[in-house]
Amino acid sequence: MITHTMQKFPIPAYLWSEWTLTVMEKYPHRTKDFVQSYSQNQLMAKSWLVEHLKMECISDLDKKEVWILGSWYGTVLVPLLRNVLKNPRIHLVDFDNESLIIAKMLHPYITTHNIDVTFDLPEIETDIIINTSCEHMYPMKDIPMKGLCFYQSNNFRSDNAHINCVDSAEEFAAQSGIEKPKLYTTDFHKFDDHHKRYMVIGQR
Amino acid sequence: MIHVICSRWGDKYPIDYVNKLYNMVKRHLHQEFTFYCQTDDIEGMNPDIVQLPFLDVLPESTPEAMMNSSDFMNSLPRLWDRPKLNYLVPNCWNLKGTIITLDLDIVIHNDMQPLLDLYKGKPIIGRSWWHDMEKEKLPLWRRQYAAKLNGSFYLYKDGDMQEIWEDLIKNYNKIYYVFHGGSDNFLTNRHMEKFDLVPEEYYYSFNHNGNYIHKDKIICTFNTHPSQFSRFEIHEWSKLNPEVNELWQ
Description:
The complex is a heterodimer.
Chain A (H helix, E strand, L loop, with lengths): L3 H5 L4 H14 L4 H6 L3 H17 L8 E5 L7 H8 L4 E6 L2 H10 L4 E4 L2 H4 L3 E8 L13 E10 L14 H6 L7 E6 L8 E8 L1
Parallel strand pairs in A: 1-2, 1-4, 2-3, 4-5
Antiparallel strand pairs in A: 5-7, 6-7
Chain B lengths: L1 E6 L8 H13 L4 E6 L11 E3 L10 H5 L2 H4 L24 E5 L3 E3 L4 H4 L7 E4 L5 H5 L1 H5 L5 E9 L4 H17 L4 H9 L4 E2 L5 E3 L13 E3 L12 H7 L1 H6 L2
């Protein structure tokens, strides 16, 4: 039974228990990684983005096609988008095939693409493009795509996988390929105020 | 005819490393071969070794151009071993037939014929068998574009690397940008399936496999790591370990 309270959850937290158990059983080497995909940090970054997305698209929330680049498992973004948009068609793109296999298991209604965004993404033309992992990739301006873009990056250089950190929203905007981007900055995590997360939004 | 190539730039390895590598190949490769060194510094080099110039087909790939590139000047040494990418250039230096490339920091201590016998139409490359294979399965490994291959040894025939070269020349900007770790990271993450691997019974790391010579194997790499037991180069081990000293001549 799904209670009224459960129905009001913007994200199905009660499902995450099931999902985590499934990952632990079938992909034990991924348990930590999966749990990290719904950390406070991740929830903050993704909900921050979706709040802005809702404002940008408020006039027309129906049947949007959304591409999420560097999607990981889509743990947080997919349910949040399905909560905000009506009947979205969601595509997840990631070079980590196993994360997409798990994502498809968790969200059977999505489409997955095992592609390295930096090298192999075909030119996409769609309604909404989300990339919350720009710090892992080549600058977006050199990856062809058309649509309303929501990009995030950060200045957290301690992670070896972060090959493209930036130090300001302006610097991030310059490598976004968005002509007139809206710029936003927030704290990267709750532990310090030195590390920042940046977001740029705009049409390409 | 077999062509054996190594490369030397900068001052990390003295010329001794080139001459001793040549001597080891002479002792353990029992077929006709020519030994080459891609370098611009031949002072003290054995005159039997043929000098090869650094190619500039790939932008910012000569040692000088690489060191002067904006990434390096800004302390971001993206894809730091670019001169080794010249091994992928089709008909590089007009060499035909079988090509073996070797890093300088290796010891060869058995007959190389089993390595030649591995060739079945695909290029052959070393594998970092000393890695914790469970760690390699972790998502972080992929996310960091980490390496599984070890390019201290390649064996191929001219033309084998054509497809890899096409990727490289088309995407060199992105490849330099993304693969901080070097050519091994590039090949692992974009082209691993195009290679056959040197099996573990022939190939190991002195610094990561117990700090001793594995007598039955053929190639011993000395890939260093700044930890207590794996930071020494061959010339340092040769002073500490008589067996290394005897083999590295």
